[in-house]
Amino acid sequence: MNRHGWSRKTAYAVGATVLLAAATGCAGGGDSGAASAALVAPSGTTAPAGTPAPQQGAGTQPSSAPPAPAAGDAAAWAKWNLTPLPPAPPAPADKPVKLQKSGPVPVFSEVRTSDKVVFVTIDDGAEKDPKFVEMLTDLKVPVSMFLTRDIVKDDYGYFKRLQALGNHVHNHTVDHAQLSKVAPEKQKSEVCDAQAALTQQYGTPPLLFRPPYGDGANTPALNSSVQQCGPRAIVLWRESMQIHDMQYQAADKKLKPGDIVLAHFRGPKDLKGETMTQMFGEMLARIQEQGFAVARLEDYIAAPAG
């Protein structure tokens, strides 16, 4: 698997919105490469001014927002041979990422915050291990799911169980195509057809989009497709979880407040015999060692109202 890393970009303020620029890489069946960004208007355009945090409406999911995630109790963590993470702080009233209803979508791989939190995102959906549902139920660690339609369509119900825990479903294309290598029409169908299927299955339209491998994230063609299909931001990552450790972009190989961490729904076939729960436990251990909590990404995002 190819591994690529980039240094952290300088963050730019654009109106009330903090925006980020991205680059990435990976190989094989998942996105093990990293991407860097600070919320910037794609294609060199100026992003519109930020909007206030919205009322519950289109683009927010689930319809009844869960309370701020707790760290779970010590016994639950001991069951999985883990040390509890610090509890996440309350969700900020002033969301640092403010999305717009129309126009170019921002690209970001971190959230500007002083909270000592990171955000866990999980891609694709090939592994559907019931023990992982049990693990998240016990530990109450929030995740954001970027699902690929053709990978999850044989068991949409598995991810509904994870959604019922308060975890959000987002768009990761129809069949994991490398988007920079396909025509604009194919790019659009990859985003729009997945958006339609995931909306039908999970009840609300995905708010966020992640291109496979992070590929094409900053191109005008993909940005236009995402705008037309419904997601309101392109989300990349700062670290990616391998089997036992993380791949970092930063030269110091340390987490930073607001970093987005990438993992995958994978099982023993792709994890050299380890299970999804073992890999996820290793990731939580790396986060705990550095003193971070895991917060819910969507709690730091103001979705467009209406």
CATH level-3 fold name: TIM Barrel
CATH superfamily: Glycoside hydrolase/deacetylase
Give the CA-CA distance, first to last residue: 42 Å
Q: Largest sheet, described in full?
A: 7 strands, mixed
CATH class: Alpha Beta
Gyration radius, rounded: 17 Å
How many extended strands? 14
Q: What average pLDDT do the residues reach?
A: 83
Indicate how many domains the architecture comprises.
1
β content, as a range? 15-25%
Low-confidence stretches: 1-71
Oligomeric state, counting identical vs distinct chains: single chain
CATH architecture: Alpha-Beta Barrel
Separate helix tally: 7
| Overall body shape | globular
Helix vs. strand class: alpha/beta
| Element order: H for helix, E for strand | EEHEEEHEHHEHEHEEEEHEE
Brief synopsis:
The protein has 306 residues and is α/β, with parallel strands linked by helices. 23% of the residues lie in helices and 15% in strands.
Folded structure, characterized:
This protein has helices at 74-79, 130-139, 149-152, 156-163, 184-202, 220-229, 276-289; strands at 12-14, 17-19, 97-98, 107-108, 117-124, 144-147, 168-171, 208-209, 233-235, 239-241, 246-248, 260-264, 293-294, 301-302. With 306 residues, the chain is α/β, with parallel strands linked by helices. Helix 5 packs parallel to helix 6. It is globular, with a radius of gyration of 17 Å. The relative contact order is 0.23. Residues 1-71 have low confidence and may be disordered.
